[in-house]
Amino acid sequence: MKTLVIGAGNMGLTYAEGMAQSAMLNRRNLMIFDKSADVIARLRDLDHFDVYESLEECLPKADMVFIAVKPYHCDDLFEEMQPMVNQEQIFVSLMAGVTIAKIQEGLAVKKVVRSMPNLPAQVGKGVTSYTESSEVSRVELLMVRNLLDTTGKSIHVESENYIDASTGISGSGPAYVFYFMNSMLEAALKMGFSKNDSKVLVSQTFEGAVELFNQNDLSPDTWMNRVASKGGTTRAALDSMDDNNVKELIKDAAYAAFDRAVELGEEKK
Ligand SMILES: NC(=O)c1ccc[n+]([C@@H]2O[C@H](COP(=O)([O-])OP(=O)(O)OC[C@H]3O[C@@H](n4cnc5c(N)ncnc54)[C@H](OP(=O)(O)O)[C@@H]3O)[C@@H](O)[C@H]2O)c1
Q1: Which of 4, 52, 141, 231 has a 20 to 30 A CA-CA distance from 80?
Q2: Is the distance from the beta carbon of residue 69 to the nearest atom of ligand 1 less than 6 Å?
Q3: Series of mean pLDDT values for 10-residue runs along the chain (269 residues)
Q4: Residue whose CA is closest, atom 21 of ligand 1?
Q5: What is the value of pTM for the model shown?
Q6: For a pocket test of ligand 1, which of 70, 72, 79, 122 has the largest count of ligand atoms closer than 8 A to its C-beta?
Q7: Which atom of ligand 1 is nearest to the CA of 93?
């Protein structure tokens, strides 16, 4: 199965690198195309994929096409692609806010998978949600899933509404975690720790907490109560967060991202 990645930026290159490790593909079957001459030169130096400078040479040969350009580039790209596509090809979009209907219309095709990846895909710890048009078969969807899983884990969702919702949780989510980390780093520095020690204290705390959470079925509340004792230090911190409504504010933030994803989708119709 020949796979083409269009757009070799953060996401496109991450997925191409992940898929290059897949048993389903081998180097000869993985093509990559970008319009920037600098990017093409860097890809050639990397020597991991078959690099193409023109769509005419690679798009007609592809069975599956991953689209990883910025959403505002999609109209121009679709116009260029349309004369070269065929109805058997499967198009997997990584673009935020671009609906399946828009991709079907822009390319005049039927088989489309829309996905929402996230940045930790760069270290093989990404999570991608995905959904498909009715014309994509179960077998084809399984092939797509296998490729998405090369960058971490994936979840299948029933409708595009959940793609927008997952933007608010996992797509934008790494930034919420960095926001929390930043606050703790600032507090550690203020308490007098060196930059390096602050980084170790914070990153190891996050890594350890996630590891504990993943090891069994205990809820975050249960873990919080294991750290906190009545009248103790952790309880003082958690009470301070509750008094300031931090939990509700974080939920509001996730909904703000969800609402913005829906809004962007409407704007691009
Ligand atoms: N980064 C994230 O964390 C993240 C998370 C979720 C979803 N996404 C989605 O992933 C997609 C890609 O984002 P990104 O951060 O990887 O963007 P990026 O780093 O800007 O990469 C896009 C690449 O595509 C190239 N390109 C633009 N138009 C093209 C065309 N017509 N044909 C071929 N190549 C073209 C760009 O070249 P130029 O630079 O010369 O324009 C650039 O090299 C976006 O749609 C975004 O919504 C990203």
Answers
A1: 141
A2: yes
A3: 94 93 82 94 89 95 97 95 97 94 97 96 96 97 96 96 96 97 98 98 97 94 93 96 97 96 81
A4: 9
A5: 0.92
A6: 70
A7: 45
Distance in Å, CA 248 to ligand 1 centroid: 33
Rounded alpha-carbon distances, angstroms, from residue 252 to 176, 184, 243, 247, 261: 12, 21, 16, 9, 14
Helices (H) and strands (E) in the chain, counts: 12, 8
Q: Distance from the CA of 247 to the center of ligand 1, in angstroms?
A: 33
Residue with tokens 């993985």: 30
C-alpha pair distances (Å), 105 with each of 66, 71, 79: 17, 15, 10
Amino acid 267: pLDDT: 79
Query: Can you give the C-alpha Rg of the chain in angstroms?
Result: 21
Cβ(118) – ligand 1 distance below 6 Å? yes
Q: Are 95 and 67 in contact (CB under 8 A)?
A: yes
Tokens of 248: 């509700």
pLDDT at residue 269, as a whole number: 67
pLDDT score at 250: 97
C-alpha span between 59 and 33 (Å, rounded): 9
Supply the residue whose CA is at minimum distance from atom 27 of ligand 1. 69
| CA-nearest residue, atom 42 of ligand 1 | 9
Residue 260 burial (10 A CB sphere; 0-12, 13-18, 19+): middle
Distance (Å, whole) CA 70 – CA 73? 6
Identity of residue 82: Q
Q: Are strands 3-6 and 64-67 parallel, antiparallel or unpaired?
A: parallel
DSSP-H helix ranges across 167-232: 173-190, 195-215, 220-227
* Beta-sheet pairing, 152-156 with 126-132: parallel
Q: Residue 193 C-alpha to ligand 1 middle, in angstroms?
A: 39
